[in-house]
Fold this sequence. Notes:
Layout: H1 2-66, H2 68-72, H3 98-116, E1 121-129, E2 132-142, E3 149-157
Antiparallel strand pairs: 1-2, 2-3
Helix pairs in contact: 1-3
Amino acid sequence: MPMSNIMIKKSKGFTLLEVMIAMVISAIGLLGLAGLQVQSLSFNNTAYIRSQATYFAYDILEKMRMNKTAANAGSYDLATTDVPLSASCYGTSSTCSESDFASADKYEWYSLVTSTLPGGASSVSRATGSGQTIVTVLVQWNNLNTTGTSQIQVRGEL
């Protein structure tokens, strides 16, 4: 009987040690999962911003196709350093020319790009040759995951 009492006393702390090791391993696993969740949210945000930039690039291209006369005349051209003047033709009873509609489109588009994308900038340029006009739309933004800027460039024919 005295032998069994000694063995019981020695094994009492062993179960506690097993539980503590299991808790440490579980804590490390949970920290790893939390890190994956943070990384996933970051990549999701980057993908969202990229899809917004792509949408904006195709949006102005479609507006130019709807107003080809003004687009061919250069009314939609925009450098990344330019800030278009505020113009409004929508919801008014006044008569607006094609150039006025182009100015309104360009201002609203520029406002969306700069207010939606972090550090957003944009440019629109055209090249004419062989009887066709090719438009290049560039949308840039500050990448939050890395240093530097990211960009989307879309080319289309008017």
